Amino acid sequence: MDYQSIIAGPKELPHCDEEHKIAVRNWLDLPDDLTFKIISRLDTFQILTGAQQVCLQWRSICMDPLMWRTINMCHIGIHESAAHFNLGKMCRHAIDRSCGLLENISIKEFGSDDLLEYIIDS
């Protein structure tokens, strides 16, 4: 599938002739389980700071406790804006969203004894 078949937008481009029409898809038309799989490939920071703010459907999917069975916050340093966030607080928020279903957590550079106790207690 080429990039043109997944562009979100109107069903037809008005300035194209019949021979050059592009197949256009709307991301909101994807089934929730497929959208869940796509979002789950993002890291925790990307979900909390971006994906959940895209639309109501994505926010609903991001609130699903199954999304939070694995929390990966090891590569936060690659996000330039990470310095503006309280990573410990973000991690606790992600843990809370797991609703006790947390199976795997990876943190680096901001862990503390308090955070480890919070993980254990959750």
TrEMBL record:
Domain F-box: 24-71
Superkingdom as given in the UniProt entry: Eukaryota
PROSITE patterns per record: FBOX
Entries under Pfam families matching the protein: F-box-like
Membrane spanning residue stretches: none
Protein name: F-box domain-containing protein
Organism expressing this protein natively: Stylosanthes scabra
